[in-house]
Amino acid sequence: MEIRILEILNEIKSLIKIGGTTKWLSLSEVCHQTSLSKSTCLRAISVGSLKCSRATGKLLFKVEDVERWLNG
């Protein structure tokens, strides 16, 4: 429990440092910008190599997560 609180605080701290301006992309934007198919992106999500958020009911991706996935 204490470790989880520290992780959350560190995440908040990093957001404050960068101004909290995380750029999010939709699935279609990721496919367009990477020139990859929707099925390729969905496969990467299902195996856990591409992180996404489903909090809003649709798939959203942080730009840095997409870049990390592309760069291996």
| Global structural class | mainly alpha
* Number of E-state strands: 2
Helix run count = 4
Major beta sheet summary? 2 strands, antiparallel
Could you tell me the strand content as a percent range?
Answer: 5-15%
Distance between the termini: 31 Å
Which residues form runs of ≥5 with pLDDT under 50?
A: none
Question: Would you mind describing this structure in some detail?
Answer:
The protein has 72 residues and is mainly α. The protein has 4 helices and 2 strands. The protein has helices at 2-17, 27-34, 38-47, 63-71; strands spanning 24-26, 60-62. Strands 1-2 form a two-stranded antiparallel sheet.
Main features:
72 residues, 4 helices, elongated
Outline of this structure?
This protein is mainly alpha-helical and 72 residues long.
List the helices and strands and how they pair.
Layout: H1 2-17, E1 24-26, H2 27-34, H3 38-47, E2 60-62, H4 63-71
Antiparallel strand pairs: 1-2
